[in-house]
Amino acid sequence: MDINEKRRFFGLTLKKSTWNNIIVYIVLLIVAVFWFVFPNPNTAINSGPTERLMSDTDQLTGIEFANVTYQFDGQQWQCQGPCNESTQHIEALVDRWQNLAISSTSQRPQGEATSVILFFANQNYAQVELYSEPTVILRLPQQDQLFLIENATHASLTPTN
Q1: What is the Cα–Cα distance from 78 to 72, expressed in whole angstroms?
Q2: Contact at 8 Å (CB) between 95 and 139?
Q3: Are 32 and 26 in contact (CB under 8 A)?
Q4: Do 80 and 146 meet the contact criterion of CB atoms below 8 Å apart?
């Protein structure tokens, strides 16, 4: 073995390829330490169990978006405003809202919010904001609470037009 193939560091004499391997493993160890000590702040942090947004006793009677309102007329859901959606599509959208699974999160939403007002049979209503970035997040502006939506996408919760 040629003397040029060996390197001496802190009293250890090892081959050059061995030192390269040691350096690679040290760098991987440092990356792993930073990965766990300083997690990415944009990842979802669930701080609560998954639950439904509306209980079985809540009777949804209307959903209002910026330019479209969906109302239940006692027999079926109707679209009011500029709407060319089928009854099946409207019922699927309403069903997704009624069965929305959420969990509380501390992740901050980004981007433009879609304002939605949910109307209930007992003359109550709830104003919510729907965000699509970085993940689908529901915000209750009156209480400043944030929820991660578990079982729907932003596009499946908003009108298509």
Answers
A1: 6
A2: no
A3: no
A4: no
Residues 6+ apart with CB under 8 A from 43: 107
Give the Cα-Cα-Cα angle 54, 149, 133 (nearest 5 degrees).
140
For the chain, the residue count is 161
What is the structure's pLDDT at 9? 67
**81-137: pLDDT as tens digits:** 888 888 888 888 889 988 888 888 888 888 888 899 999 888 888 899 998 887 888
Rg of the chain taking only CA atoms, in angstroms = 27
Phi, psi for residue 34 in degrees, rounded to 5: -65, -35
List the structure tokens of 68. 């479209």
Residues with Cβ within 8 Å of residue 112, at least 6 apart in sequence = 131
